[in-house]
Amino acid sequence: METGEEFGPWLARQLKLAGKTQAELADELKLTRAAVSAWITGRSTPRPTVMTEIAKALGTDVGTVHTRTTDTQAGLPVTWYHRPGYPDGGRDMGNAAAFAFDADVQVLARETCQNSLDERLTENGRPVRVRYTLHELTGEALDAFREAILWNDLFPHYAAVSKAASNQKVGRVVDAGVRDMYERGRLVLLRVDDYNASGLIGDDYADGKFAAVVRRQLESLKSGHAAGGSYGLGKATLWATSALGLVIINSTLSVPHEGRTERRVIGRLELPWREVNGEPYAGPAWFGRPDPDSPGARVARSWWADEETVARLHLARESDEPGTSFLIVGAHDVASLEAKFDADDEPVGDMEGDDEDTRDIRKMHGRLVEALGRDFWAAMTGGGSRLPLLEVSVRALRNGKEVVPEKQVDPSAEQPARTRALRAHYEGTTVDRLTEAGQVAARSVPLKLPLSGGAPGTLGTHQAVLLVTEAEGDRDGDGGKNQVHSLRGNRMTVKRTGVPRLPLSTNPFQAVLLVGEAAGESAPFAKEAEEFLRAAEPPEHDRWGQTEELTLRWSPSAYRRINALTAEVNSAVRELVARPKRSSREGGEAVRKALTVRTRPKAKAPAGPVVPVLDKLDATVGDDGEWRITAEVSIPRGDEIVPMVPVAQLDVRSGGRPKLEWAELMAVEGCEVEGGTLRFPPGTRRAKFRGSTDVTSHPVRTTLTRLVLELRAGKGE
Q1: Rounded to an integer, what distance in angstroms lies between the CA atom of residue 699 and that of residue 606?
Q2: 627-634: strand order across its sheet
Q3: Chain center to CA of 294
Q4: Quick check: helix, strand or coil at residue 463?
Q5: How many CB atoms lie within 10 A of CB 442?
Q6: Which of 336, 363, 306 shows the shortest CA–CA distance to 136?
């Protein structure tokens, strides 16, 4: 049995819901007002015989008064509250936060699963369980659901939006969603349940997780510094995935609110400005019980629903374990229409076909499994003393009957090589170098953390962990082979990048980079690395680079520390996957003896210094807009080689070429870099170096320019 709320606060709320005062209740009970006041303030409780009279006065049964696990039925009925239009005539034509993401179930999976990971209850050591349920309603099931959400009250608002749909983007999406429901007689619900999570705790309006999700925009109140989200935008994917802009929520709380934990229900609707029956409405609406403390009891707040109500709303949870269920009403997957191409850039399937369906629950099921396995394989992997952080499953129903069986996402099936690598790291079975099939090589790579506030210097060096192993199958992992998946504390894949300049003879591999607390909570500066990299992630959380927060909290050049980490990782990967060179005599002694090779006499080295010549240049534009170059130098035979300074310039039609500063300049082979100058050991014939320019020294955007690289003798002045 649920723990009931304290009698005083419960009675005070019931009086508000019933529109009664303490004095009126006292008159009905033939008691003094002071007696009722004492109950409400907790100084005393009524006798059992008086409980019966209180139940009659509130229009409920005596059991409800004794248990106090739900509100009485005498209160105001559940309804929709639509925010009135702004007094100054301003209009919001949709929630701008929703435009940060596509209407894509794979984006939804990434954001919602990340949120569940961030809210996992860590005290019990168990993973957070997340289940995705696609449920297509037709016929009587659809009619019953529309009745449960008071569709007839909503329809005038949808009709008003559809009427102006031709002039407004959100309106066109909503209009298409309503037409699909009526023309095809169906509605797709996408439900996201998590268990062993905190739930939407806190007051309806004051600071807390409930208000941050349901009432506010651009607010993130995550539980720890290793959390994935930081912008407060991820929740917008829920409403972006609904063609009707409607999400209903049922939460079981880890911390009681108003003395209760189960079936806290609220709905939120996101529509553009509209005019209904001559009244303007600003945009959002809430589905709940009118709050008696609001003016005219118009504002809707969450309510404690009974089991029958949550069942009619398709929000009944499987247990009383804390967590939240989000029901996306009218789910669609526009991104599933993106054209697919094969390895030869030929379209896959009929490009002219018009039978594509953005509400195909079988296709959406497959795309959810794919995205979850790609982005959260590490969070689902355990080994040694490390337990998985996450369990995920996906299922599809039609009118309550199973269409696609529930599939538990298996990381070893979705990402076999990387899962093997991570388990080997947890179990302590990694090696220094790959010499046999199935091995996992480990290498530490440094991340030098800057001081906050723009101060020069280094806070400390965090040692990230790089894992490399051979790839499996024809296509191992998203984007193919030879990829590095980078992740931090919550073990969601943040970056998926290739390694440049791999030797042609490299065996196919997959790599994993563990940074921050993913490298181990005892790793030096793990917490600081988490904070630094979290600030370096954009709202999509799909890379690390220059962001406004990184600039404000550290400095405009702080991103170079991440570039240096990337360079270290790429260099380490190339070293680990390189095939060992064979001796020139190995296996060729018999052939060597059978051949007669005539050699030419060596040319006499010229006297005096020789000047190296730029022989080959590869240049690309990096993620932050910098030029990244790899240059090869040929050197004439000579005893003394002139030091050279690489100079990067922008090509212009007239006038002097603007000079760019180097953010990074490093030797690869055959040379050394000292203070921006290349120096070559005597006898060197070829050399190679790399560099990246400082974006802050670019006078214009890189994509609008061309690069010129010169080698200048001496100090390059």
Answers
A1: 43
A2: 613-621, 627-634, 686-693, 662-669
A3: 36
A4: strand
A5: 20
A6: 363
Q: Which three-class secondary structure string do you get for 133-146? A: EEEEEEHHHHHHHH
Tokens of 224: 């720890």
- For residue 19, the model assigns a pLDDT of 76
Q: What is the spatial distance between Cα 482 and Cα 473, in angstroms, rounded to a whole number?
A: 12
Structure tokens of 114?
């990340």
Segment holding 398, helix H or strand E: strand 390-398
Q: Cα–Cα distance between 189 and 192 in angstroms, integer? A: 10
For 14, which DSSP code? H
Between CA 426 and CA 428 the distance in angstroms is 6
- pTM of the predicted structure, to 2 decimals: 0.72
Task: Please tell me the distance from the alpha carbon of residue 200 to that of residue 119, in angstroms, as a whole number.
Answer: 10
Six token digits for residue 446: 């440094």
Residue 274 · residue 154 · CB < 8 Å: no
Q: Is 517 buried (19+), middle (13-18) or exposed (0-12) by CB count in 10 A?
A: buried
d(CA 190, CA 359): 10
Which residues, 6 or more positions from 313, have their beta carbon under 8 angstroms from its beta carbon? 145, 148, 149, 248, 250, 265, 305, 327
pLDDT of residue 427: 93
Give me the helix-helix angle, 169-184 and 151-163, nearest 10°.
130
Please name the residue that has the structure tokens 């090779």. Answer: 597
The predicted pLDDT at position 595 comes to 44
| DSSP state for residue 58 in the 8-state scheme | H
- CB count, 10 Å around CB of 299? 17
**Segment holding 11, helix H or strand E:** helix 7-18
Q: Where are the alpha helices (DSSP H) in 185-269?
A: 209-214, 236-240
Hunting for tokens 């509250």 — which residue is that?
81
Pairing of strands 303-304, 186-195: unpaired
Residue 548 sits at the vertex; the CA angle it makes with 543 and 551, to the nearest 5 degrees, is 100
Q: Which amino acid is at 462?
A: H
Q: Residues in the chain with pLDDT < 70?
A: 1-3, 73-76, 90-103, 165-167, 217-234, 296-297, 336-356, 473-480, 505, 579-607, 653-655, 715-717
What are 62's two structure tokens? 């005596």
Q: Facing residues of 659 across strands?
A: 649
Beta-bridged to residue 393, according to DSSP, are: 131, 408
From CA 84, how far away is CA 282, in angstroms rounded? Answer: 5
Cβ neighbours around 106 below 10 Å, total:
19
Decide if 58 contacts 36 (C-beta within 8 A): no
CB distance 263 to 306 below 8 Å: yes
Max CA pair span of the chain: 124
Cβ contact 568:445 at 8 Å: yes
Q: Say if residues 668 and 570 touch (Cβ distance below 8 Å).
A: no
Per the CB < 8 A criterion, the answer to whether 693 and 649 are in contact is no
What gap in Å lies between CA 663 and CA 627, rounded to an integer?
10
**Whether the Cβ atoms of residue 180 and residue 359 lie closer than 8 Å to each other:** yes
